[in-house]
Design brief:
- By secondary structure, this protein is of the alpha/beta class.
- It has two domains: about 350 residues, 3-Layer(aba) Sandwich (Rossmann fold); about 100 residues, ANL, C-terminal domain (GMP Synthetase, Chain A, domain 3), CATH 3.30.300.
- It starts with 17 loop residues before the first strand and ends in an 18-residue tail after the last strand.
- It binds malonyl-coenzyme A (MLC) and adenosine monophosphate.
- This is Acyl-CoA synthetase.
- InterPro entries: AMP-bd_C (IPR025110), AMP-bd_C_sf (IPR045851), AMP-binding_CS (IPR020845), AMP-dep_synth/lig_dom (IPR000873), ANL_N_sf (IPR042099).
- It holds the Pfam family AMP-binding.
């Protein structure tokens, strides 16, 4: 018999464990009842891949869990996606929107709960192959529109079990975070993690320092956050001190600045466990709860994963803590390819089957990894979100007042990198052009991909080949 992906949720001894999302709390038993009814409704409609508007709500959790129980693939649509990106995700994935769209065009509110109410208790959950798809997560590349990353149930299970091992994460833990429910961090680790391991979950809504402090007061033991959130926690010492009662603080999705690591150590008494991953690979390297914790260090490969750092010719560089190269990974947590893009999938792997992360790293003699940056300036990490410069440039070039543009990530104390659009206007730039361009990106892509700043210039720096020299802009 296949082991269920959400084995904690299905464990009768955990029926009283609690899942809280913003203001709604359900026991595992109640969540299972609601999600089973959703699963039955999906099975009745013979759905195989559904898209969900992934707002940070219990409705989203019930729908995702229902789909996982039914063996239906989930395509989360970013809650802040504009109509353009939303349409791309729906068209490209071919997913059915769940819950079905109301006649007025809006998704029916509370539909997941209504499906729950109408569910029949007699429905038997199907046994689903580990090779079946769990998610198609849309993520940015350096150019073009976001690609759908196909993650199997096997990869999700392997990734979560590896983290349970690394962090001694058990059913006694209550995980708290306020991450978006449409990416690996908040959804795969942050929702499926507890439901596989059997622990509690407290999604705090907006990830403010005071909300994290309140979760700690309410008994949360583990905290997930991106560096921007941790940096804001450090800036509010009273909230930070509340986290002293935690068992483990974890940071990921972007590099944690050393002063933030040190600030948290001082205020919370905890050295944060930093870990590294990607949508395509899940979490491949992590600081272990029982291992060395060092600022700027993301730890060691998780169970089952192998890593190597290679030079431009693909030859491994020495593991001496200083030699740099591209980090490549392989193991059971890797994705099954980009949806409908076999060439992009092939290009992402080496001939001998290693995934090219595009991140520059070094491995020390003790096996600990340090991520030094990205090989390409065209992938920006802002607030922990991965954003392609190319997708923003395409949108901006669609505006008649833009002759040329280059989008760059500029170092930012709060966001890690802030998106800046450098624009050569087609004529004299009217005052409102900057706002118009930002709004265009919000409508075509999403709120978190908007440039925080638009700089107008007479010309872009180019090399003799005519290529824009972005490094001269930052
Ligand atoms: C601003 N807003 C606008 C707007 N400008 N709305 C519409 N149009 C405009 N032009 C509004 C927003 O709607 C929102 O409003 C508010 O401004 C948000 O401001 P912000 O500054 O953009 O966001 P903030 O709340 O400060 O977000 C910071 C953050 C966020 C850290 C909370 O960046 C975040 O959640 N990051 C997590 C990213 C993540 O999970 N990455 C994981 C990827 S997986 P309103 O109404 O809402 O207040 C991965 C793998 C791994 O990387 O390793 O984990
Ligand atoms: P995403 O696909 O959104 O998950 O983004 C993956 C990218 O986030 C990686 O390729 C890294 O560039 C970055 N990243 C994730 N975790 C870390 C970390 N701990 N330190 C530095 N960069 C990270």
């Amino acid at each position: 018999m296949t082991e269920p992906l959400l084995r904690g949720l299905l464990d009768p001894t955990r029926a009283d464990a609690l899942v809280q999302v913003a203001d709604t709390t359900l026991s595992y038993a109640a969540l299972l009842t609601s999600a089973t009814a959703v699963a039955e409704a999906m099975a009745r409609e013979s759905l195989s891949r559904i898209a969900i508007d992934a707002t940070p709500t219990m409705d989203t959790v019930i729908s995702v869990v229902g789909a996982i129980l039914a063996g239906v693939e989930v395509v989360p649509i970013p809650a802040d996606a504009g109509p353009g990106e939303r349409a791309h995700i729906l068209n490209d994935s071919g997913a059915d929107l769940w819950p079905a769209t109301a006649p007025n065009g809006g998704a029916t509110e509370g539909a997941a709960e209504r499906a729950a109410e109408s569910g029949r208790a007699a429905y038997r959950l199907p046994e689903v192959s580990p090779d079946a798809g769990a998610f198609v997560l849309y993520t940015s590349g350096t150019t073009g529109l976001p690609k759908g990353v196909r993650l199997s149930r096997r990869a999700v299970a392997a990734g979560l079990d590896a983290l349970a091992d690394a962090w001694a994460w058990t059913a006694d833990d209550v995980l708290a975070h306020g991450l978006p429910l449409f990416h690996v961090h908040g959804l795969v680790l942050g929702v499926l993690g507890p439901l596989r391991i059997g622990g509690g979950l407290r999604h705090v809504g907006r990830p403010t320092p005071s909300a994290y402090a309140a979760a700690a007061h309410a008994g949360a033991t583990m905290f997930f956050a991106v560096p921007t959130i941790w940096s804001r926690v450090v800036a509010e010492p009273e909230s930070a001190r509340a986290l002293r009662s935690a068992r483990l603080l974890v940071s990921g999705s972007a590099a944690l600045p050393v002063p933030v690591f040190e600030g948290l150590r001082e205020l919370t008494g905890h050295e944060v466990c930093e870990r590294y991953g990607m949508t395509e690979t899940l979490i491949t390297v992590a600081t272990r709860a029982d291992g060395v914790r060092r600022a700027g260090c993301v730890g060691v490969p998780v169970a089952g994963v192998k890593t190597r750092v290679v030079d431009d010719d693909g030859a491994p560089v020495p593991a001496d803590g200083t030699s740099l190269g591209e980090l490549q990974v392989c193991g059971p947590t890797l994705f099954d390819g980009y949806l409908g893009l076999p060439e992009a999938t092939a290009a992402a792997f080496t001939a001998d089957g290693w995934f090219r992360t595009g991140d520059v790293a070094t491995i020390a003699a003790d096996g600990t990894h340090r991520i030094v940056g990205r090989a390409s300036v065209d992938l920006i990490k802002s607030g922990g979100y991965r954003i392609g410069a190319g997708e923003i440039e395409s949108v901006l070039l669609g505006h008649p007042a833009v002759a040329e543009c280059a989008v760059i990530g500029v170092p930012d104390d709060d966001l890690g990198q802030r998106i800046v659009a450098v624009v050569v206007p087609a004529g004299p730039a009217p005052d409102e052009l900057a706002t118009e361009l930002i709004d265009l990106v919000v409508a075509q892509l999403s709120v978190h991909k908007r440039p925080r700043e638009v700089r107008f210039v007479a010309a872009l720096p180019r090399n003799e080949m005519g290529k824009v020299q972005k490094t001269r802009l930052t």
